Amino acid sequence: MNTMDYFKQICEIPRESGNEDGIRHYILSWAGKNGMEAFSDRAGNVIVRCPASAGYENVPYVALQGHMDMVCVKTDDSTHDFSKDPIEICTDGEWITAKDTSLGADNGIAIAMAMALFTDKNVKHGPLEAIFTCSEETDMTGAFNLEVADIKSRRMINLDSEEDGIIYTGCAGGLKICGGTRTVLEKVPESWEPVEIKISGLKGGHSGSEIHRQRMNAINALARMLISVKKAGFGFRLASFDGGTRSNVIPSSASCVICILSDVKKKIMHGILAEGENLKKEYAVQEPDFTVEHHCSHCNPELIRPEYAVNPEDSGRLVNALFSLYHGVYSMSCVLDGIVETSVNLATASLKNGFFRTELFVRSFHESAKKMLCCKEETILSAFGFETSEYSDFPSWAPDSDSELARFCVQTWKDRFGKEPAVTAIHAGLECGVINSRIEGMDSISIGPDLQNVHSVNERVNTTSVERIYGFLCTLLEQLAKKE
Q1: Is the predicted pLDDT of residue 232 greater than 90, yes or no?
Q2: Is the pLDDT of residue 302 over 80?
């Protein structure tokens, strides 16, 4: 079977972060059927070992590394259940995508590529090791808890990159912030009526690798529209707020229900929709499908008038906080041309039972810059009465100019394709940073085929690029074995 055959099988298996039992069983069963050593460690990671080709038994191990989980997002009207439903694949020429959901090529392609290579009798290689981690997309739990004594390799090829022709030798570190505050709920007066506002149609995407594309953040946009009510001198009562899905996903949709005075309803809605038009013009290039919907109880019978809502003072405080928080690229690298150095994603915001919670994801190549931007966002939240906490802190992977594996990889690429690859670092987080910090002497690179719009319903993978990277990987492993 080739890479795409394995990938299609993987797409049949639900594998949202934390729900990896199915994919874990699939890999272990496959390894057993093919006579390979395989086991799962206490963290839930899976290690598979492939014997060397004849004559290369004494060559040092090389690891292929990827993660088993995927980011699960779907369109607002999709009924897909990620806990049990398979991903429905769609093909458009060289591109494969999914129907109404994320595809999971990040990082199912890594698993599929390793499985294809481990069973390809035409490839000559030394002993190989696959390291398939769990819960990478949430907080890199698998990498942080990998039982390092089990790992025999000291050279690792991470297959979690998304651009053909680029060899990554570094990545940003990250830190997540959670902010929460209690609000004052009051009974909604009879003279106030509910209005629902929805933002949808945004591209969203990966909060690391696509943060520089200046896509609209649905939470920021909805807060901006509500700020227009305050600027006009009107009050409102926030009955609900829901935006974003995951910390590493740029929010593509957000909605809220506000209660407003009936006699000024037309003026308020005119201001909100006018701000929506401003956003539409500003983001015409990045977000051509941006949509704003509004519904009142008269036009939507399903919109039930809430009995309680946040009082006007606290409603204004919450919106002020969201509007003030920074989202997007904070600084560009002066060392790596065109690479984001520090950024933040305003990832989620929700109001439930009077408690408002928001989450942000800060990334940077510099530990000090990461901490500084976290401090800035926490200072803003604290000023508006939020309590904050930090979690899921992971290190950056500093580019290593002395990496023997990187130099060999560059030369092999040049020999195979007749030109040099780009060698750089990526703003997204890769598990190389964690694994390298835990295994002394580990030398790593990261490569991968062309993927676009990962962590979104528009995620897609190029099959021609998959074949190209697979062919290069086979050549690289053969040349590494011969070199020894």
Answers
A1: no
A2: no
Active-site residue, 402 included: no
Cα separation, 20 vs 103, whole angstroms: 16
Smallest Cα–Cα separation from 43: which of 170, 190, 146? 146
Whole-angstrom distance, CA of residue 196 vs CA of residue 259:
9
Is residue 319 helix, strand or coil? helix
Catalytic residue (one of 69, 242, 287, 443): 69
pTM exceeding the 0.70 threshold for the entire prediction: yes
Q: What is the pLDDT of residue 301?
A: 72
464-478 confidence digits (pLDDT tens): 999 999 999 999 999
Known catalytic residue at 263: no
Catalytic residue among 136, 210, 242, 431: 136
Give the rounded distance of the alpha carbon of 141 from its chain centre.
15
Taking CA 173 as the corner, what is the angle to CA 201 and CA 444, rounded to the nearest 5 degrees? 110
Question: What integer pLDDT is reported at residue 304 of this predicted model?
Answer: 86
Q: Give the type of residue at 107.
A: N
Cα–Cα distances (Å) from 244 to 115, 167, 209, 346, in that order, read 34, 31, 17, 9
Burial 71-104 (b: 16+ CB within 10 A, else e): bbbbeeeeebebeeeebebeeeeeebbbebbbbb
Whether the Cβ atoms of residue 58 and residue 153 lie closer than 8 Å to each other: no
Rg (CA), the chain: 24
Would you say residue 45 has pLDDT above 90? yes
Are 197 and 103 spatial neighbours (Cβ–Cβ below 8 Å)? Answer: no
Q: Which are the contacts of 407, defined by CB distance < 8 A and separation ≥ 6?
A: none
Beta-ladder partners of 196:
257, 295
